[in-house]
Design brief:
Elements lengths: L14 H9 L5 H5 L5 E4 L12 E18 L2 E10 L2 E8 L14 E10 L2 E11 L10 E4 L8 H15 L8 H6 L5 H9 L4 H30 L11 H9 L7 H15 L5 E6 L5 H14 L3 E5 L3 H15 L6 E4 L5 H13 L4 E4 L13 E7 L6 H8 L7 E6 L5 H5 L6 E5 L10 E5 L4 H13 L3 E5 L14 H12 L5 E4 L5 H12 L5 E4 L12 E6 L7 H8 L10 E5 L8 H8 L3 H12 L2 H4 L1 H7 L9 H16 L8 H14 L3
Parallel strand pairs: 4-6, 8-13, 8-14, 9-11, 9-12, 10-11, 12-13, 15-20, 16-18, 16-19, 17-18, 19-20
Antiparallel strand pairs: 1-7, 2-3, 2-5, 3-4, 5-6
Helix pairs in contact: 3-5, 5-6, 6-22, 6-23, 7-9, 8-9, 9-10
Length: 676
């Protein structure tokens, strides 16, 4: 038997049990061994019945009486009286009638369960039970608890694991020996046994440290190897045109922040090199990323290269095209917009102009990666909100050039340091952490639903002063299963009662692209006082006159998303306000309190990582692909150790082929994130 052996070859695993494991994604011996417990319960200490206290307990006793009662249709309660030399105890199982015939009154059993006060008496509820004469799996030990994937029970997993313990003792080492030694880690085999069969809390701690280190080491090594490969590629060396850049900066209607200057210089230096740039520009909301991208596009255009700017939505693509046209129009740099709404002859003409090189900057959505789009000489690719695009989509755009173009990815979601090292480790990072000088901090306030009328008064006062407002809802339609407010119901309520004297627009994701564009254009042109919308306005929508935003059911959103929504206001010179309307009058959570007191997206991203995990920031699908069972990307000390070890691995010229399982994991992570 080895790690690739089919699960049905394990002793005690028949077709029915094997099917349960396969449905949960566990088909081989290796799959089962790698299925790690999510937590442990300590039943290792056996107590006498007279010494039992409320909580997790293990006792050793005989069964002196049993009874099964049917309390209602489909529900049975099995009661047993347990006895040792010190007294008697009542045990109860729900919907487990077979327990009545399971026990031999001449045998002693270990019972492990929760001793609690229920139905007006103390009892041991739903305990595991095993013969004291046999090696225990679920009692008289620190018991591992596994995730119940597709109903797979922990007790069944533990029984199968017990059969595989001999194999666990022979598992080969999966990390280089010098790393295991220098990091003072237990062996791979010891770590696996330490989680499945711990004898003490120390075993669990040592096992988790070892396996968490390995998970992060694999991810960091993959990132660094990708980065190494990127540096070996040929790219376009785009010379720094000092005169054009200076002229561009000089005609801006505002001064660049220091952060913008530093980021722009890092990008210009990257583009001068003969290897393709692979840089991530992350900036807090309103920090001016588009201007920095425009400056890079000026350098590319002056050297005879085209720039493609890809945005996740048509609204954002149109906004980028408008901003870049205003910034670069006087330089003779042409900007084309390629989105779904551009059809027929206009689309064909744009294709022809792009292919001929008559368009310097092409802004668009997924339309930019269609086979029908041919570029004359693509030198720079800018991808906004890059975490919203899959690797294949990004790759397809990069493949539009014979020579790898420079890549500038942008995100308005500040990324915590730990994610920079791991998920985005192959990219160089530039950070915009300053807001323009004329922008006032947004005042945020948590609001109970009973205080809604005060918020409406505040919104009305802002509109009377010439400003505009957003009202954000999470749903489009009313839902019988949810108490969240729908955007259509809110629109009707505000229009027909509270703000009947104001002009109100409605925006949501099911509207046709041209309808959405028209609504946004009307709002920007001040034809609406209030825009009631779903989160389609989350990223990039820029209406400087909007000074107040009310987010309904704010407690239902992630912290990063709330910060993005709040960034829709505060984009002009006026004082702006964000009202976070709670679903009920309960005490607000810690994360909402953090949002109320801080406008710093980088600080909030770190808080979000601690409270909700990387999926909130990086995206659920991608984070699921990381497959981290043990490691926390918020553990900065662990990341530092693993980064140092990965650098040492590369510096020492280690051969990855010598470590088969490490190579498999690293190759998988490299495919997950690579752009070359």
């Amino acid at each position: 038997m080895n790690l690739t052996t089919d699960i049905e070859s394990i002793k005690g695993v028949g077709p029915k049990t094997a099917k349960q494991f396969r449905v949960a994604g566990l088909a081989t011996v290796g799959d089962v061994i790698s299925f790690l417990p999510r937590r442990h319960e300590d039943f290792s200490e056996i107590v006498a019945i007279e010494a039992v206290t409320p909580g997790k307990q293990t006792i050793k006793a005989r069964v002196v009486a049993t009874e099964v009662k049917r309390v209602r249709r489909g529900m049975t309660v099995t009661t047993a009286v347990l006895q040792d030399d010190t007294g008697k105890l009542r045990a109860v199982w729900f919907n487990q009638p077979y327990r009545a015939t399971q026990f031999d009154d001449k045998q002693e059993y270990f019972f492990s369960g929760n001793f609690e006060f229920r139905y007006n008496r103390y009892q041991l509820s739903n305990p595991s039970a095993e013969k004291a004469s046999e090696v225990p799996v679920s009692t008289d030990r620190i018991v591992p608890v596994y995730r119940a994937i597709r109903g797979l029970k922990s007790q069944l997993v533990r029984k199968v694991m017990a059969e595989l313990r001999p194999i666990m003792t022979m598992l080969p080492e999966t990390l280089p020996g010098d790393i295991v030694q220098s990091q003072q880690l237990v062996s791979y085999s010891e770590a696996v046994i330490g989680l499945h069969f711990p004898e003490s809390a120390r075993d669990i701690t040592a096992a988790r440290e070892r396996l968490a280190f390995e998970e992060v080491f694999q991810l960091l090594l993959a990132s660094q190897l990708n980065k190494q490969d990127n540096k070996a590629l040929d790219g376009h060396a785009i010379a720094f045109d000092r005169t054009s850049v200076k002229e561009f900066v000089g005609q801006l209607p505002f001064d660049l922040t220091n952060a913008q200057r530093i980021a722009a210089w890092e990008i210009i230096q990257d583009m001068e090199r003969p290897t393709p740039m692979n840089r991530l520009l992350q900036g807090d909301v309103g920090s001016g990323k588009t201007v920095v991208a425009g400056l890079a596009a000026v350098s590319a255009a002056r050297a005879g290269y085209q720039t493609a700017v890809m945005a996740p939505t048509e609204i954002l693509a149109r906004q980028h095209a408008e901003t870049l046209t205003n910034l670069l129009g006087s330089f003779g740099i042409t900007v084309g917009l390629l989105v779904g709404a551009v059809k027929g002859t206009a689309r064909q003409e744009l294709y022809a102009r792009i292919a001929a090189g008559d368009v310097d900057i092409v802004v668009g959505t997924h339309a930019l990666i269609q086979d029908t789009v041919k570029y004359h000489q693509l030198g720079l690719v800018v991808i906004d909100e890059q975490h919203r695009f899959g690797v294949k989509q990004r790759q397809k755009l990069l493949d539009k050039s014979d020579t790898m173009p420079h890549l500038l990815a942008m995100t308005a979601t500040p990324i915590p340091r730990s994610l920079q090292l791991t998920v985005f480790g192959e990219m160089d990072i530039s950070i915009l952490n300053e807001r323009p000088a004329n922008r006032l901090p947004i005042k945020s306030q948590l609001v109970s639903p009973v205080s809604a009328s005060k918020v409406y008064d505040s919104i009305d006062a802002e509109i009377s002063a010439g400003r505009q407002a957003y009202v954000i809802c999470s749903l489009i339609d009313e839902s019988a299963e949810s108490d969240k407010k729908s955007v259509e119901a809110e629109y009707k309520k505000l229009k027909n009662s509270v703000f009947g004297h104001r002009s109100i627009g409605l925006l949501h994701g099911r509207m046709k692209p041209d309808e959405k564009e028209q609504v946004m254009a009307n709002f920007k042109a001040k034809k609406y006082d209030i825009l009631v919308s779903t989160t389609v306005v989350e990223v990039g929508v820029d209406v400087p006159n909007a000074s107040v935003i009310m987010i309904e059911n704010a407690d239902q959103f992630g912290l990063a998303q709330l910060h993005q929504l709040r960034g829709r206001v505060g984009r002009g010179e006026h004082q702006s306000y964000c009202y976070l309307m709670l679903s009920d009058s309960q005490k607000p959570s810690q994360r909402l309190r953090e949002l109320e007191k801080s406008n710093d997206g980088f600080y909030l991203a770190e808080v979000d990582l601690q409270l909700r995990g990387p999926g909130e920031i990086y995206g659920r699908a991608q984070h699921g692909d990381l497959n981290l069972q043990i490691a926390s990307l918020a553990d900065t000390k662990l990341l530092k150790r693993a980064q140092s070890a990965a650098e040492q691995f590369i510096t020492n010229g280690e051969d990855l082929l010598q470590y088969k399982s490490l190579q498999t994991a690293v190759d998988r992570y490299r495919r997950l994130t690579t752009l070359n």
